[in-house]
């Protein structure tokens, strides 16, 4: 199975991208809804949660792991890779590569949780590959709870997005990395407010491309993955709104099962 975890249900946008790029592959998803958001937690706590989530996926049949949480990817990916003997993917590097594949000049905006932005992970990786790139990063902590609560088309959400994006719009960025897997659910209002000339980079879609390419190049790993159209979704807390939001993200009905770490 392809194992995917996130701090909440936002990682289901990555699940949908995997379903589109790798149809038929079995998927095991864990959303840590009881302990979200990770973006406001300390690095030590985020790393602990990432290790627990990865262990759950491994013990339940995952042969590869995708860290769909940008906060966990920016803090805990090295620890996860060092602790578990299987391929581990995350959403940061593929998004960075996509941003740098856009035409020059590279004026790149990044929005994410406080933990992701504070880590500086996107700017560090972008600058390592292209020192001349300009990176403007902004934390947008209210967007995750808005998505989790299903406030997707409200005037309040639109006003918050406009306020968050204003500094990036004035800097005339050319591309915008959605540095949180919850944000693609708000891609339409984000794209509208940032302007037509800005390319939106969905980290979940980018990592799906990376995984598909990896499996094509590594048939020995691909043969370990079952392909029975079997998808299992677990969360650490269930609410009616989570189930509604999950349906919105996957664009199909989904059954969430609760399990605590």
From TrEMBL:
Binding site for substrate: 6-7, 38-39, 70-71, 181-182
EC nos: 5.1.1.3
Pfam families: Asp_Glu_race (PF01177)
Keywords tagged on the record: Cell shape, Cell wall biogenesis/degradation, Isomerase, Peptidoglycan synthesis
GO terms classed as biological process: cell wall organization; peptidoglycan biosynthetic process; regulation of cell shape
GO MF annotations in UniProt: glutamate racemase activity
Catalyzed chemical reaction(s): L-glutamate = D-glutamate
Active site: 69, 180
Keyword Membrane included in the entry's annotation: no
InterPro entries: Asp/Glu/hydantoin_racemase, Asp/Glu_race, Asp/Glu_racemase_AS_2, Glu_race
Superkingdom in the source lineage: Bacteria
Pathway participation: Cell wall biogenesis; peptidoglycan biosynthesis
Keyword Isomerase belongs to the record: yes
Signal peptide: none
Family as reported in the entry's similarity comment: Belongs to the aspartate/glutamate racemases family.
Annotated function: Provides the (R)-glutamate required for cell wall biosynthesis.
UniProt-listed PANTHER family: GLUTAMATE RACEMASE
The name this protein goes by in its record: Glutamate racemase
